[in-house]
Amino acid sequence: VLMCYRLDRISRSVSDFSTILDDLTDRDIDFVSIRENFDTSTPIGRAMIHIASVFAELERETIAERIKDNKYKLYRTGHWQGGNPPTGFEAVKVQGLDQDGSKRSHFILKPVEDQLKDVRLMFDKYLEYENLSRVETFMIQSGIKTYLGNDYNIATIQRILTNPVYATNDPCVYDYLQSEGADLANDKTEYDGTHGLMSFGKNITKGAKHTTRVRVGRDGWIVAIAQHEGIIPGGKWVSVQEKL
């Protein structure tokens, strides 16, 4: 007999659980869930445990959907949601009030000028060369390193150049992102050419174990106006995107 505390500790997928149960049956092993008092040694127990697995999967999917909705709501605030800040910024914790007037802490991006001068240079050089490889060569030959002390490579340069976090929120940026299919959290009238932008959903995890990170197109992004000021004029940022 294989015993577990409760069914969803084994699996919350109906097909996955059915496979496990078939494997146990083939090996003449009964399955017992102590919490739900299911016992597959009886026909009614086998039937009930399949029904229970359906509800376990439903619960998992409901929780996942609720978390996803809450994440989207947080994204639309324009706050930094954690992780490594983009080159040229550091994350700073600030206190504020939510819609209910309760005190809440969140993170905003604060400029790091020593790094931002390299970012500005990168945009200028790309518009001059229109070639990522030449920008990479220029950065290496100039001895300009990342904040971790490594050489800039093409992938890092492209990631910086395509990140709207640096762009001022000009109406032309709104038009460009809208044409690319991005989900824009703010109305065009809020694009005042001052603040930067925050983009979410640029990467997703795939694979059976959800360990493979894949870059997605802009039609999968959520973009919101952030609290930090933009660094690269919106028109310049759009020009770089079009050339890329």
Between the first and last Cα atoms, what is the distance in angstroms?
A: 60 Å
Spatial order of the strands forming the largest sheet = 1-2-3
Give the strand content: 15-25%
Give the number of helices.
7
- Major beta sheet summary: 3 strands, mixed
**Class by SSE composition:** alpha/beta
Number of strands: 10
Outline the secondary-structure elements:
Blueprint: E1 2-4, H1 14-26, E2 31-33, E3 38-39, H2 43-75, E4 89-97, E5 103-111, H3 113-129, H4 132-141, H5 154-161, H6 171-179, E6 183-184, E7 195-200, E8 203-206, E9 212-215, E10 222-229, H7 234-243
Parallel strand pairs: 1-2, 6-10
Antiparallel strand pairs: 2-3, 4-5, 7-10, 8-9
Q: Could you explain how this protein is built, in words?
A:
- This protein is of the alpha/beta class.
- It has 7 helices and 10 strands.
- The chain has a 3-stranded mixed sheet with strand order 1-2-3, covered by helices on one side. It has a 3-stranded mixed sheet with strand order 6-10-7, covered by helices on one side.
- β2 (31-33) and β3 (38-39) form a beta hairpin.
